[in-house]
Amino acid sequence: MTLRARVAMFVAIAVGLAVGGVALAAYGSTRHETIAEIDRFLLARAPLTPLIEDPDEITHVPGSGQGMGRGPARSPGTIVADDVAAQIVFVTGRVEVLASEDVVLPVSDDDIAVARGTLDGFVRTVTIDGVDFRLLTRRLGPSSALQVARDLTETNAILAGLRNRLLLIGIAGALLAGVAGWLLAGRAVKPVRELTGAAEHVALTGSLDAVIPVGRGDEIGRLAGAFNEMLARLETSRLAQQRLIADASHELRTPLTSLRTNIEMLAAGMVPAAERDEVLADLKTEVIEFGALVGELVDLATVGRAEEALVDLDLAGVVTAAVGRASRRGSQTFATSLTPMMLPARPNAVGRAVTNLLDNAVKWSPPDGEITVRLDDASLVVGDRGPGFASDDLPFVFQRFYRSTAARAMPGSGLGLAIVAAVAEDHGWKAFARNRDGGGAEVGWLFGGG
Asked: Helices 153-188 & 190-205, crossing angle to 10 degrees?
């Protein structure tokens, strides 16, 4: 069952239950008031009278709706009228029918108890020959009770008609609610249908160019917007992966070709014995560089995708440890100014990027140069006294595999600063590179993203 059909069905059921509840309450209230009115009618037809010593003195006054009294002098104080069935019940069980002689009212032990005076009068519904009557029993004399009953056939017919009409109204209301729910649900679930269509399009074609119009600010609109954003991020990620694969295949081809050539020359015996050790040393160097290149490719490909949780990271501690390692790899000196601070970050990724910043400074600094490292609440800045950046190179220093003319004669893959920029983007920071006053360069992060 579709979502639209379920919504329409739920609306119809809810409205049907509501209408049914109201109809049931209305029917119950009407029935109660109708029966109460009949009870009042019976009481009016059998008013309280002085206790009759001798029931044989009772006479029946037919017509005119007056019923019975104690002879002519009692005619104003009638007991029953001709529009009801009536009879007198004696404590012995004898019954004397007073009105509607075709109907004999049932007599129970409770009716005898009323005649004895041990039980108050009461009203009940009885069925006589398949016809419902409302029956009132009241004490009449020291040893008798009066029973007055009214046929409920007309009343039951009216109540049955009311019940049927209320049932039809309930069914009609539920059907109308279902139609209205179907129409409203069609408008409500339209973005969901578009979302489903877009998801099926992506699953079928692998294309991420589907866009869902938002145009609303409710939860469904937010869902559509989030889906569009997800598709855009997936498309960006896929394009980045494709560029990475293309760049990596190009960059890996050169070292692989060199390795294969040297190995084939050694295998064919084309290398003179005097040069064999030199070729082997070149092979070892190329393998190390190739391994470093693959490692950096893996680092770049997994930035923001590795399952490394954000933690409150002591960035000053990370920088201090990285400076210690870098100082042991070169002859430069390090001047640090580090403000203790905690940032939510991924430790391994940040540690690798800080190492790349320091390695870049070491690579370009003169052997006896000084490298400055500053950390405060706003930024991390690593400065060197090397040649700095050429103005043509500055826009491209964070691109993958980009190497300036001067850098091509030096070891490196062109991925170090690309990793620095990727880690910054993953944490919401901004990577920057600029030339330094007095010569050299500064590379680092702005933590505010500005």
From this structure: 50
